[in-house]
C-alpha cells in the first residue's frame, strides 16, 4: 500500500486579436501533430528572475518515450531577483508569501525506486502507486510576487476579475454542434460553442478547463458561474522564428447558458527587475508555447500544467490592462506602450513548482482540483499512447492556495497507474477517478470512471476531449473539445461509480 502524504489564409480576428471584428490573422500552425517526447525530470524550472540568461534542462534518471503532447522543454530562466514589493490595487496579504508554505509532519523518508512506480499496466484497471516517488520544489514565490507587483506599478493598470467580467466582448453559441450532440445524445448534457472565429482558428487550441467552483467554496466568482479555458499558440516554428504567443485564457460567463459571453486574456511571464521590469508570453525556453494542457483555479491562483516540469502559477488578482491592442505581434512595454499580442488584459506569473532532481520522471499533461479529498488535492494526469499513463495527487492548502510542503518539498499524496491510453484529463471526486481519454473508439473520446483495484466503467465522450473540471454544486463534469470546427465545451451529470 502506498504511503500517503497528508496533507488554435484569412480568419476573423476574433480568433486571435481582442476587439476588431476581422483580421488577416496568423494562419500558420496545423492541428496538433503526434510528436514524440521524452519524459523526464528537469534540474529546475524556476520562476523568471531579473535577467534572462537561460540554462538547459538537467538529465532524467529514467525516460519514457511517449506521443501526443507537442514536444516541449519547459526550461528555466535564471538571473537576479527583484526587490520592489509595491503594486497598485492588489491585496497585500499574498505579497508576504514565502516558499515555505503550509507544513505537515515529515513523510516520504524512503522514496521507492522509479522502476517500482512504472509497473506493467492492465487495461481498464487502476492500480495504486507510491506517491513518494514524485516530488516538487517551489521557486521563490516572494520574489515572483514582488516582480509581478513591480510590473503592475510600471503599467499602472491593475484590474480585478470583476472588472474583466464587466468587459466580456465575445458571444458564444448555445448548445453543441450536431456532430458532437449525436455522440452525447444519451446524456443530459449542457454546453456551448465558441464564436465562428474561435471555433475554426487553426493556430490556437483549447486545452485546460477550470472554473468558479474550483476557485471559490461557494462556486461563484463575482456572483457568476464562470469557466476558464486555456488555449496554446499551436504553430510550427524554426529556431530563427519569433517566439510563439504563448497561452491565452478564455474567461467565460456561463450563468445563463443561453447567453454565453467571454473574453480572452494573455498569460505572461514578468522579466527584469524593479523599474526595468517587463514581460513576455508564456513560452518555453525554445520559444514554443507552453502547452497548458490543464489548469486549475484556486482562490486567486491559477495552476497551469507545465508538461515536462510541474506547474507554473499565475495570479488572477494581479491582472493588468494594456494600453494598445492593435499590434498582434507586439509583447511587452516599449515606446510608452503596453502590449500583449493584441489582447487587452494580461495575467502575470508569480512562481513555479518543478520536479526535484531526486523525483522520478512524470509528465504534467493535465491538472484538476479535488475539494472533496482530505486534504484537498491537485490531480495531475500523464498522456501516454500505451497504458502506462499515471495519475498523481498533490496536497494543497485551500486557505493559502499553496501546495503543502515537507521540509521545502511537495510529495505526491498518492499516485496510480491508470490502465488507459491517451489520458487528456483526470479528476477525482468522492473517491472516484474520472479520466478523459481521446481517440478511444475511432475519433471519439471516452470518459472512464474507476476505483482503485477495480475495472473501469465507460461513458461516451466527444471528439477531441481535453482537461476535466467539476462544477460541484450542479454535479457536472466539464471538458473542452480541441479540434477546429468541432469545438464544443460541455458538461454532463457526474455518474459516480
TrEMBL record:
The species this protein was found in: Nannocystis punicea
Region (Disordered) location: 21-105
Biased composition range(s): Low complexity: 47-102
Signal peptide per UniProt: 1-21
Keywords: Signal
The protein's name: Secreted protein
Amino acid at each position: 500500500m502506498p504511503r500517503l502524504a497528508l496533507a488554435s489564409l484569412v480568419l476573423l480576428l476574433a480568433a486571435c486579436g481582442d476587439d476588431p471584428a476581422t483580421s488577416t490573422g496568423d494562419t500558420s500552425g496545423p492541428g496538433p501533430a503526434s510528436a514524440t517526447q521524452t519524459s523526464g525530470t528537469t534540474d529546475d524550472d524556476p520562476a523568471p528572475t531579473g535577467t534572462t540568461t537561460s540554462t538547459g534542462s538537467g538529465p532524467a534518471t529514467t525516460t519514457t518515450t511517449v506521443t501526443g503532447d507537442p514536444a516541449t522543454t519547459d526550461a528555466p530562466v535564471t538571473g537576479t531577483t527583484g526587490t520592489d514589493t509595491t503594486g497598485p490595487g492588489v491585496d497585500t496579504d499574498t505579497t508576504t508569501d514565502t516558499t515555505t508554505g503550509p507544513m505537515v509532519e515529515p513523510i516520504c523518508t524512503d522514496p521507492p525506486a522509479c522502476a517500482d512506480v512504472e509497473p506493467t499496466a492492465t487495461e481498464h484497471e487502476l492500480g495504486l502507486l507510491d506517491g513518494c516517488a514524485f516530488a516538487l520544489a517551489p521557486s521563490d514565490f516572494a520574489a515572483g510576487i514582488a516582480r509581478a507587483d513591480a510590473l503592475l506599478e510600471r503599467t499602472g493598470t491593475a484590474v480585478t476579475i470583476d472588472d474583466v467580467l464587466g468587459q466580456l466582448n465575445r458571444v458564444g453559441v448555445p448548445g453543441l454542434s450536431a456532430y458532437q450532440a449525436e455522440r452525447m445524445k444519451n446524456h443530459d448534457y449542457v454546453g456551448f460553442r465558441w464564436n465562428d472565429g474561435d471555433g475554426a482558428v487553426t493556430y490556437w487550441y483549447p486545452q485546460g478547463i477550470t472554473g468558479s467552483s474550483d476557485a471559490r467554496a461557494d462556486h461563484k466568482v463575482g456572483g457568476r458561474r464562470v469557466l476558464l479555458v486555456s488555449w496554446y499558440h499551436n504553430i510550427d516554428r524554426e529556431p530563427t522564428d519569433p517566439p510563439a504567443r504563448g497561452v491565452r485564457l478564455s474567461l467565460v460567463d456561463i450563468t445563463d447558458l443561453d447567453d454565453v459571453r467571454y473574453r480572452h486574456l494573455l498569460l505572461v511571464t514578468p522579466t527584469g527587475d524593479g523599474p526595468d521590469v517587463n514581460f513576455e508570453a508564456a513560452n518555453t525556453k525554445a520559444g514554443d508555447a507552453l502547452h497548458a494542457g490543464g489548469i486549475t483555479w484556486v482562490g486567486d491562483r491559477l495552476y497551469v500544467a507545465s508538461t515536462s516540469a510541474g506547474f507554473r502559477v499565475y495570479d488572477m488578482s494581479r491582472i493588468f490592462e494594456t494600453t494598445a491592442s492593435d499590434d498582434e505581434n507586439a509583447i511587452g512595454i516599449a515606446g510608452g506602450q503596453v502590449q500583449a499580442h493584441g489582447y487587452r488584459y494580461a495575467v502575470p506569473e508569480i512562481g513555479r513548482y518543478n520536479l526535484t532532481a531526486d523525483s522520478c520522471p512524470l509528465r504534467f499533461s493535465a491538472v484538476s482540483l479535488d475539494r472533496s479529498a482530505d486534504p484537498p488535492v491537485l490531480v495531475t494526469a500523464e498522456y501516454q499512447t500505451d497504458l502506462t499513463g499515471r495519475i498523481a495527487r498533490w496536497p494543497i492548502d485551500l486557505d493559502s492556495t499553496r501546495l503543502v510542503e515537507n521540509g521545502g518539498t511537495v510529495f505526491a499524496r498518492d499516485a496510480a497507474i491508470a490502465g488507459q491510453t491517451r489520458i487528456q484529463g483526470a479528476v477525482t471526486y468522492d473517491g472516484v477517478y474520472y479520466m478523459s481519454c481521446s481517440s478511444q473508439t475511432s475519433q471519439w473520446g471516452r470518459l472512464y470512471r474507476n476505483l482503485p483495484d477495480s475495472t473501469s466503467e465507460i461513458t461516451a465522450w466527444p471528439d477531441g476531449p481535453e482537461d476535466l473540471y467539476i462544477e460541484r454544486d450542479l454535479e457536472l463534469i466539464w471538458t473542452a473539445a480541441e479540434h477546429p470546427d468541432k469545438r464544443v465545451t460541455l458538461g454532463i451529470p457526474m455518474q459516480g461509480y
